[in-house]
Amino acid sequence: ATKHTCSKCHLVKAVAEYSNVQRKRPEDKKICKLCHVKFMQQRAAAAAQKRHEQHMIQIRKRFKVLEQFCSNPTSLANTFGTRLKVQMPSPSVVRRFTGAILELAVQRKSAAFNDLLHIVFHGTSSENFSSIFSRGLLIGGRGVPIRNGAAMGPGVYTAKSESTPRYYARNTSEIIACFAPKDTGFRPNGGGDVHVYEDEKWLLPFGLVSVQ
Question: What is d(CA 184, CA 186) in angstroms, rounded to the nearest whole number?
Fold first, then answer.
């Protein structure tokens, strides 16, 4: 039987071992079936990698906007009006949060942070405000005391509404507003209002909202 030497693996193989797929380049006709399959797989992987890199560029651009927004979310004045007092979170808290959300965006293949995030609220004593905006919301029992119990287990307790946190806002009429992922990182209270976040990275305090 007629044999040819593959231009890729340099092995001498029978004609039957060569793909009859038409190639654009004449030299490709000297590639055996096995090498041709590997070549096609490598080309597909390179194309997928290029798409991933382009996607990451878009996500990084989007989350640069997110980081700037989280550092000074003044546009939320339309949502809360004069009730919102924007507080600048520390750069380390912003980086921790945006890094976690960036990973989430890559997993979800979404570059729109407004599709990933919503606002939750946390109530506490006013004496804790400064530390929270400096260090972020920390889980009780891990370097900070548990202040209001942990009936649903360890974590940072937040709520989607303002009424529940208001109950825990001792000696103040303000509660902390936070950005958080919509559907990950927390244990819901039977689908209710309370969300318990099990990792501090998922919460970014950005201001104080006055409640009556």
Answer: 6
Distances (CA, A) of 2 to 15, 62, 160: 6, 58, 74
Q: How far apart are CA 4 and CA 10, in angstroms?
A: 9
Provide the residue type at 178 as one letter.
Answer: C
- Output the pLDDT for position 102: 80
Q: What's the burial of 54, exposed, middle or buried (CB within 10 Å: 0-12/13-18/19+)?
A: exposed
CB 153 within 8 A of CB 197: no
Average pLDDT value for residue range 157-184: 88
Phi, psi of 5 (to 5 degrees): -95, 125
The answer to whether residues 165 and 158 touch, using CB atoms and an 8 Å cutoff, is yes
DSSP string, 78-136: HHHGGGEEE----HHHHHHHHHHHHHHHHHHT---HHHHEEEEEE---GGGHHHHHHH-
* Residues above pLDDT 70, as percent of the chain: 68
Q: Pick from 204, 212, 146, 144: which is nearest to 175 by CA?
A: 212
